[in-house]
Amino acid sequence: MTLSTRRDDATPQAPSEALHVLRAPSPASRWLEAYPVGNGARGAMCAGLAGGERLWLNDMTAWSGNAGADPLEGVAGRGPETLAAVRTAIDAGDIGTAEELLQRMQAPWAQAYLPLGWVAHHNSDAWAFAAPVGAGHGDPAWANWSLGGVWLALHLWEHYAFGRDRSYLRDEAWPVLASTAEFARSWIQTDGERAWTSPSTSPENHYLDDEGRERGVAVSATMDVALLRELAAVCRAAAGALDLDEPWISELAQLTGALPDPRVSARGDLLEWDRERAEAEPLHRHLSHLVGLFPLAQITPEATPGLARAASESIRLRGPESTGWALAWRAAMQARLGDGAAVHAHLRLALRPAEENSDAHRGGVYPNLFSAHPPYQIDGNLGLTAAIAEALVQSFDDHPASGAEPARITLRLLPALPPEWPDGRVRGIRSRGDVSVDVEWAEGELVRARLRAGTRAVTMSVHGPDGSIGTYELAPGTTRVIERGERGISW
């Protein structure tokens, strides 16, 4: 629920209260002045998109389906037939018909059109509603994204990568990964030599067809390829960590390997679609085709410099302005590109006062510090902290542990330190491999780092702003302090 209080900035605070107490002499008159208290407590839903509700309850306000309905009643057979017709229309270049058919697939149940494996779309609720939304009239560009389940499954692997709990991986993550992989193998189309996804969208974005009409459906959008290839890699790594030998893992790797590689356009940016297409909205807030840069690590300045430059150009071409969560995402992507100045520029835009009466997609923060979409979306607040963390510490899983073998992690310290942050320290950033990292710096240079291992052994390959520092074997529960000048590196 939300505590409707308004802070009077003129009200003095005792020194001992300054960091953790808000005093409000009167109730808030507007939601943007209210502070959330107890969200997620028993009997109430966590706050999400805020269009007007003060309190979301666990009943009708969150329900998307029909109580007691048979998931397959009245739809058996129709879904798969419609999907086949969608693909036929796309192959024939009849995107208008494909989009009309996709709207018919916006049924209450995802099982209606593809029963193999687990599939989810872009929207859900507390009852795990997983079908396309849109109620039969939504634009497929946002209503029919079919890889939401793949996106969510990857987060289960990330949870394991940071915590290294094999019981969690075996009992909770692996069943979901395996079922998601089953869906992926049925979704990817192939002729034996090449592979593609169809229908395919780049969430919420559109291109212009040859007649100048906005379209949101194509084949093999860049985001599709990145997510499916990541799923294949994650399933292989998870199977190795669990000492499993599953024949479908090689099949999935072969299928995703036959998907089209990311390509650079004639103007130097990363292609968003299967080929060069005219943009319907050149300054669109989404950069879905850069998911391989962040949060994935398929594109890096070190391993794929050409694609990294193209990703940077894609960000530049979308312009400096955007909504709150998009600014946070761009800051995180710039951190992966090692551009600290760009990180700072995006953070400044994301933290400026929001224009409360604006309908434009302009980021900032409201008086209660919630991030502007507008209205409010938590992505902007949480994404901002992720971007700051990425500017200071980055970690990558070089060699996922197999069985009892220690993980091998690449750790980058101050990879994108903004010039405006010359002195500082950060404590307790968690890296992959279950290692807690403290970093101190002065005058823009690394001074000291402290690595604290969790409950498992790990090998850390540590890099500073000027290059490699050294490789350290950490036993469970041990701490390693790295001082300025160690291993001959001038920090």
Describe this structure in words.
- The strands form 5 sheets. Strands 8-9-13-14 form a 4-stranded mixed β-sheet. It has a 4-stranded antiparallel β-sheet with strand order 10-11-12-15, with no helix packed on it. A 3-stranded antiparallel β-sheet has the order 6-5-7.
- Strand 3 and strand 4 (195-196) form a beta hairpin.
- Helices cover 31% and strands 15% of the residues.
- It has 491 residues and is an alpha+beta fold.
- Among the domains are: 1-41, no CATH class; 82-123 and 138-285, Alpha/alpha barrel (Glycosyltransferase); 393-488, Immunoglobulin-like, CATH 2.60.40.
Concise account of the structure shown:
With 491 residues, this protein is α+β, with helices and mostly antiparallel strands. 31% of the residues lie in helices and 15% in strands. Helix 6 (222-241) runs antiparallel to helix 7.
